[in-house]
Specification:
Layout (H helix, E strand, L loop, with lengths): L1 E7 L3 H12 L4 E5 L6 H6 L1 H19 L15 H25 L3 E4 L1 E6 L2 E5 L5 E11 L3 E3 L12 E2 L1 H4 L8 E5 L3 H12 L3 E6 L10 H15 L2 E4 L2 E8 L2 E7 L5 E6 L1 E4 L3 E3 L33 E3 L10 H15 L13 E3 L4 E6 L2 H6 L4 E7 L4 H6 L5 E7 L5 E8 L2 H13 L4 H5 L10 H12 L6
Parallel strand pairs: 1-2, 1-6, 2-3, 6-17, 8-15, 9-10, 9-15, 10-11
Antiparallel strand pairs: 4-5, 5-6, 7-16, 12-13, 13-14, 18-19, 19-22, 20-21, 21-22
Length: about 475
């Protein structure tokens, strides 16, 4: 069968690219090795983790803030099997939605492992041992990523687990160790901490969410420790782990070189993700992956060294974010169709879905200092926000960074209620190269959380925030 475009992988990058290709009139096929579409994000990543985050946040609020609101409950308890079942239903709804969209857009889908025979021919190896070949003028590699393994710490998927298994624990553990203070570890750790689990985070670096603005990591660590009782072992190098019965023992060395031992019911290994490029047959078409992270090199058009073969999402350089992959999927589809799309990688926001949420776009203060850029900074705390006081969400702040000479916004960093949604205002402003004064002079509805963005912009413009 001959196609204009064949896409390997149906995660956010792959399925969005397929739909956009079909919209542009290209005959499109997509290959997925699992029985459901959506990749890591919809099946064992973004969507199920957010379902559990929401459920656990409801429980935590019921246990800790409802009485202050005048809502009295008794005999409050967690029904973990039901919480997991609801999460599974949310996943099923979303994956079914992708199936519907493929049919609507007349996209041919194939179940099996796709690999290159040559640059235009893809072999689909099926679960029953059979295979078939399809051909296409263009191929898009969107095979995603998998949890990074530590060679000295084998995952048994029972007590030493990855983020995938952490989504299906059927009881509330008494204790849990999270190796890695990044987005995945903190989100899953906070799920169980809200339900009553004692969570210990072991991080090699001196700060959590280390790729984001330093102020965000410092504030998030403070809040998670205060509100959820999470323990943080910073600057600790994990050296091994063992399981005896139902207990995991993790060994580490602190910054002084001293040995540290931590025990818990479960240990989540969340030290990042690695591009999933094995089994694609890249060697058959002369594509070599980079040594670090198995990434596939691409040019400015996201085309590999082989003409007509593109790669997007987690398999190429850059942040491993679903929305980055979606934008790249659209970019490649429009490029193949002869259009001239663009992506501004500096304006792809990053989000941590803890509570408070953390969101960031543009340059951090650390980057601006390193690059020698003269800037001005304005911050506004949520404890000064009327809306945040009303909802009892007063932790966190918004920080706006602007060019010292031109006032153009260079970065916006926030930790607070609904930061994941509010960051879009900053992205829009920065796409249009707005100044801090532009944001300061836009009328924001009152009372809203977004007023904090306006106040921070006012503080950056002329140190004239009204409510602090």
């Amino acid at each position: 069968m001959q196609y204009d475009v064949i896409i390997i992988g149906s995660g956010p990058g792959g399925y969005v690219s397929a739909i956009r290709c079909a919209q542009l009139g290209l005959k499109t096929a997509i290959i997925e090795k699992y029985k459901t579409f959506g990749g890591t994000c919809l099946n064992v990543g973004c969507i199920p983790s957010k379902a559990l985050l929401d459920s656990s946040e409801h429980f935590h609020n019921a246990a800790h803030t409802f009485e202050t609101h005048g809502i009295k409950l008794k005999d409050l308890k967690v029904d973990m099997p039901q919480m997991i079942a609801r999460k599974d239903d949310v996943v099923a709804q979303n994956t079914a939605g992708i199936t519907y969209l493929f049919k609507k857009n007349k996209i041919d889908s194939f179940e099996g492992v796709g690999s290159f025979v040559d640059k235009n021919t893809i072999k689909i190896a099926k679960a029953d041992g059979s295979s078939e070949n399809i051909t296409g003028k263009n191929v898009v590699i969107a095979s995603g990523s998998k949890p990074t393994a530590l060679p000295f710490l084998p995952v048994d998927k029972k007590r030493i687990i990855t983020s995938t298994e952490a989504l299906n624990i059927k009881e509330v553990p008494k204790s849990m160790i999270v190796i890695g203070g990044g987005v995945i570890g903190l989100e899953l750790g906070s799920v169980y901490a809200r339900l009553g689990t004692k969570v210990s985070v072991i991080e090699f670096l001196p700060s959590i969410i280390a790729t984001m603005d330093a102020g965000l990591g410092k504030e998030l660590q403070r809040v998670l420790k205060k509100s959820l009782g999470m323990e943080f072992l910073m600057g600790h190098k994990v050296t091994g782990a063992s399981v005896k019965g139902k207990t995991v023992t993790v060994t580490a060395q602190n910054s002084k070189g001293e040995d540290v031992t931590v025990e818990a019911d479960y240990c989540i290994v969340a030290v990042g993700r690695t591009a999933y490029t094995e089994g694609l047959g890249l060697e058959n078409i002369g594509i070599k992956t980079e040594e670090r992270g198995n990434k596939i090199p691409v040019n400015a058009h996201l085309e590999t060294a082989v003409p007509g073969v593109y790669a997007i999402g987690d398999v190429i350089t850059g942040a491993m974010l679903a929305h980055k992959a979606e934008d790249e999927g659209t970019f490649v589809a429009e490029t193949i169709a002869g259009q001239k799309p663009h992506i501004n990688y500096n304006l792809i926001p990053g989000v941590v879905y803890t509570w408070p949420e953390v969101a960031s776009v543009g340059y951090t203060e650390e980057q601006l200092k390193t690059n020698g850029v003269k800037y001005k900074s304005g911050s506004f705390p949520f404890k000064a926000s009327g809306r945040a006081k009303a909802s009892m969400d007063t932790d966190g702040f918004v920080k706006v960074l602007a060019d010292e000479a031109t006032d153009e916004i260079l970065g916006v960093h926030m930790i607070g209620p609904r930061a994941a949604d509010m960051i879009a205002e900053a992205v829009v402003a920065m796409e249009y190269r707005a100044s801090a004064e532009d944001i300061a002079r836009i009328c924001h509805a009152h009372p809203t959380y977004t007023e904090a963005i306006k106040e921070a912009a006012m503080a950056a413009t002329a140190n004239r925030a009204i409510h602090m």
